[in-house]
Design goal:
Blueprint (H helix, E strand, L loop, with lengths): L1 H15 L1 H22 L7 H16 L1 H19 L11 H44 L3 E5 L5 E4 L1 H7 L3 H4 L13 H12 L4 E9 L5 E12 L5 E10 L1 H46 L4 H26 L6 E4 H11 L1 H6 L3 E7 L3 E4 L1 H18 L5 E11 L2 E10 L6 H4 L18 H11 L3 E7 L6 E9 L9
Parallel strand pairs: 7-9
Antiparallel strand pairs: 1-2, 1-5, 3-4, 4-5, 6-8, 9-10, 10-12, 11-12
């Protein structure tokens, strides 16, 4: 403890008298140069080099001000001691004056350059320390990998995300972080990195030390040497568990809104046959002679309700795994369920189906997707408007699939709004919309490995909006799912 107190007092003294220490060091450097000139026969022939070195050392460690002071002291030493006659400030020859002037100019120049280099090195060192601190204390998992797939560095964020300490992770293969069903993905990333390509950020899963899977946003970039040779890769991984839960809650909210619209349609469709059954039972009770005819008609209405209920179960039921489905049939189911709403607005619906419409995926999500687009089109058109629905077999980007197009002659979407319609909570319906339908719809399309495009016009003869969706024949989960 006394030793620490002594060190603290010394540090306090140096900090308080730092300027004095700097200029004293300048004098000391000049004195060392003079001593070496005096006692070393070899260095006695090079006084300018010794004093120039003293200026450079002072500039590097004490600053430009002390270096200039060292220049003045060194010039005085050269004139007073080195040049003849010694111990006199009289300059007898023009050569001595020129040499002193050249020394002074050169010392100032070299000292300033040395100080600038020192400052540049200090800034670079400070930047390196700051970057190292940013990497080390980042909330994201940041680690580097050798070309052979071995973990070379490991920050604290990686320890929190994956559960491995730096001692456990460094030297281990990076495949310990990759689930077995995503090994092909890791190999594909490695091949891209060896070709010098960066892996754009994408959503995937990685394995924790305890075996659980963690949803992450992964970015991988190649590391190059000064010669441009690839010496490894750096990976940045962000835990998106909370984001996934939030997105799932939003999707669930939109599903509830869709279910509400569906319930209203079902209630309307069931209400008509139920009223018919009540009327027929009343007639059968009051007209016994035609009771059989009335009961037969009532039975037909009950069968109609049963068919509607069975169809409703097929509409809302969704499997936990993807399966085959007919996109045209699902489109017909959606149109049938909302037929009364379309009829109430006197909207004319045209259906054009061509070729096979077989796809694979989650039928409930496809129904939700088509419902969102159909209801948006119905809200956009006025009375006596038109909606055209096309379902056709198509090839896109080398993939076989189905193209679903919904177009309307409604009011259209302005260009500034068109760029934002797929953003969450953005709506062009003022207070009538949640702003989630199209965002969820795009997520469903991307999850099925498809694509969605939109174009719209707000003026002219062909005013309206067209949504075009491509869904591949075979279900392949998108990397951003």
């Amino acid at each position: 403890m006394p030793h620490k107190k002594l060190m603290f007092r010394q540090w306090t003294f140096l900090k308080r008298h730092w300027t004095l220490v700097q200029y004293s060091s300048a004098v000391l450097a000049a004195w060392v140069a003079l001593s070496l000139w005096t006692f070393s026969p070899v260095l006695h022939r090079h006084p300018f080099a010794l004093f120039l070195a003293a200026v450079v050392v002072t500039a590097r460690f004490c600053g430009l001000g002390p270096a200039l002071f060292c220049c003045a002291v060194s010039t005085a030493c050269l004139d007073f001691i080195v040049f003849l006659p010694r111990y006199s400030f009289a300059i007898n020859t023009r050569d001595d004056a020129e040499r002193l002037a050249v020394f002074l100019a050169l010392a100032i120049l070299v000292g300033s350059l040395a100080r600038q280099r020192t400052l540049a090195e200090l800034r670079a060192e400070r930047s390196m320390h700051e970057m190292a601190a940013i990497v080390e204390y980042s909330d994201d998992a940041i680690f580097s990998i050798t070309p052979g797939g071995i973990i070379a560095s490991w920050n604290r964020g990686a320890e929190r995300l994956y559960g491995y300490t730096a001692v456990e992770a460094v030297g281990a293969p990076v495949l310990i972080l990759v689930p077995s069903d995503r090994r092909d993905e890791a190999e594909r990333n490695q091949h891209m990195l060896l070709r010098g390509e960066s892996v754009e950020p994408y959503k995937t899963e990685r394995r924790h030390k305890d075996g659980t899977l963690v949803p992450v946003l992964l970015t991988v970039s190649p590391l190059r040497s000064r010669e441009g040779k690839i010496v490894g890769a750096s990976a940045i991984t962000r835990n998106i568990s909370e984001q996934k839960r939030s997105e799932e809650a939003v999707r669930r909210s939109d599903k509830l809104a869709t279910a509400g619209r569906l319930a209203a349609s079902i209630a309307h469709e069931i209400n008509n046959p139920l009223e018919a059954v009540l009327n027929l039972l009343y007639l059968a009770r009051n007209d016994p002679h035609r009771a059989g005819q009335y009961l037969e008609m009532a039975e037909q209405e009950v069968v109609r309700v049963a068919r509607l209920a069975q169809s409703t179960l097929g509409f809302v039921r969704d499997s936990s795994s993807p399966g085959p489905m007919d996109a045209a049939r699902i489109m017909d189911e959606v149109l049938d369920f909302y037929a009364h709403q379309l009829h109430a607005k006197q909207i004319d619906v045209t259906r054009r189906y061509r070729g096979s419409a077989q796809i694979s995926g989650y039928s409930g999500e496809i129904r939700q997707l088509l419902t969102n687009l159909l209801m948006n089109a119905a809200d956009a058109v006025n009375h006596d408007g038109t909606i055209q629905v096309r379902v056709a077999h198509q090839w896109s980007g080398g993939n076989e699939g189905v193209r679903i197009t919904l177009s309307d002659n409604g009011s259209g979407i302005p260009a500034d709004a068109l760029r934002r319609i797929f953003e969450p909570f953005y709506s062009t319906k003022q207070d009538a919309g949640t702003g989630l339908g199209l965002w969820v719809s795009r997520g469903i399309v991307e999850r099925h490995g498809g694509s969605i495009r939109v174009r719209s016009r707000i003026t002219g003869l062909h005013r309206g909006t067209v949504f075009s969706i491509f869904l591949p024949h075979s279900y392949v989960a998108s990397r951003v799912a």
